[in-house]
Amino acid sequence: MDFDLNALLAGVGDASPVAAVSISADDFSAFMGGLQALPDDDAPPPDDDELEPTEIRAKAPNGQGAPRAVHDRKYRGKRKQRQIDNIAILDFETDPFDNVSQELIFPFLAVLYSDNFEPIIIWEEDNAKFVAAVIAAIESLPEAYTIYAHNGGKFDYMFLMSKLKGRMMFKGRGIMTAEIGKHELRDSFHIIPDRLANFKKDHIDYEDMRKDKRNAHRDEIVKYCINDCKYLLDIVKGFAQRFGLKLSIGQAAMAKIREDYKFERLSDTQDAFFRDFFFGGRVECLQGRIRRKEPYKLYDVNSMYPFVMAEYQHPIGNVYFQHPGPIGPDTIFIDITCNSRGAFILKDGLETKAPHGRYRFKTTIWEYRVAKKHNLISSEEIHACIDMPLRTNFAKFVRPLYDERQVIKAKLNAMREAGLIGTTEYDELVKDDMFMKFLLNNGYGKFAQNPRRYKENYVTEVGGEPEDGADAWCGSPLRMCEDYWIWQRPSPSDRFNNVATGASITGAARSVLLDAICNSVDPVYCDTDSLICRELTDVKIHKTELGAWDLETEMSEIIVCGKKLYGYTKTSDGKQVTKAKGSSQLGYDKIERLFNGETVDSISFGVTLTKAGDQYYMKRRINATVTVKDEPDDEPPIWRCSVPEKSGLSRSQ
Questions:
Q1: Residue numbers of the domain that contains 480
Q2: pLDDT tens figures, 227-236
Q3: What is the pTM of this model?
Q4: Phi, psi of 460, rounded to the nearest 5 degrees
Q5: How many helices (H) and strands (E) in the chain?
Q6: Within a domain: residue 480?
Q7: Virtual torsion, Cα 47, 51, 57, 60, nearest 10 deg
Q8: Taking a C-beta distance cutoff of 8 angstroms, is the pair 10, 132 a contact?
């Protein structure tokens, strides 16, 4: 029979017709009524559902004496599979971005897609009717679904904010999870932090989505949106089958680490103590603002953080010993005052700096050893050494994933050469490669998560209160929007992981970069795991080996105007490349103007949507953030000014 969604949406106004969903009478009954009651042997065990299987030893209901653990595992497995089966994808198509006219944009097409039903298609030009139709379509689903939209938390779901109520989880300005009835909305970008186009995406001319053109291209646009949903569902289900319904790739990585490692959690006080030793990556304009039309090279490390996780011994305990020195075999962190030539970093607002001069630093043993190796520090006064005897590397987590990924990458290269792009086998390998890449690169971050920053959020109607009352939510809403109120309170969670582990890992990464800087010729810029210099000497150079440096690009010109603000011209094809954090559309001509001391304006290509329902195009006024060094430094540089004779340039294979 034909199930006409228009009848379902009869109460939402004069919505434009949507596609009929053709299903059999039997399927229609299941679609509208949900699955029938589970047979007795699939029912959840009473009371002890949350116990571990090994703890449940009662006999099975059939009286045959089978351990209850078997029954419990069976139920859990079926429940998990049903949750994975009940994954759906939601995708919107909107008016094209226009950062010139800066007109408000609105969605006109929604597709709700799942393997369990035919695509539900809503094409509606009136925004209020569109939103009502989408909500009605989701609420009509007979079983509980987990619904994903890629980058939906910052885009698609924002168009639904006025209709979302109850508890909600935000990450920054974006929605991480929300609910519509019995269904949960999630942003798939948190488990697949990449552009969908890097997996699979059709091409379409977005100009065809303009109001005056889209009706003529309706079938093409609908097909494009359906295929986007299909490709995303394939990735999300693949992820869920492998890692479960984790909220983020960080959660999945931590669960994978826990398969082979146990670490002790820190208390609130311990976390506060070790957090002073936790810094991000090292980013420096090593010679200030420069423009050089000379040969330079960009090197980066093959999987820096996985490498230092696998090769260095990191603390995983919560027992530590603080003493005035000397440094011993168990020392991991050092509180030291010394004369430093850019050896260690300090926090500088939201950024870091590696100053020259006498300062007090809280650093890691890994950076200290490299500083001593290259004579970067002197007149040391150690205030405290922190010893942590319980340590491990994470090679069991890193090595199998990294090695498997190299095999997959080799297969993908061979399939590309054979013209097999787009085949089922190729797509499956691309997914596996993505999953392993994300796991490896997100494993370290969860150690340092800071629950002090977590907030609980609740959305009500205007004038409403959360279910447990206003007093439980700081007495008043955080934001009083036109159609809804957002309430917020600190999260009661105090589950710290082990920031000492994270601090050791990031310190080890900085030490690898510092060693490379000291072994490089005329370096001008570095960022976390990459270095721009004339040559890199006395380090391992290899295209794929874990932890080796790889020559990524050769350039004929380099312009550095600030941290994460530079450009270069590639030697191979003359292409001009710019890097400008927060201003991805910044052209090379503007990098040149910045170098010359000018101020340039930048406007984002895409629109920003806010929790309050506002839309705007991000405007930035940009200046160079480092100065031109007119005079040479008083002290010699920490790097090499020329290639040493008989150095061999690099240890390569």
A1: 455-490
A2: 999 999 999 9
A3: 0.86
A4: -125, 170
A5: 13, 34
A6: yes
A7: 50
A8: no
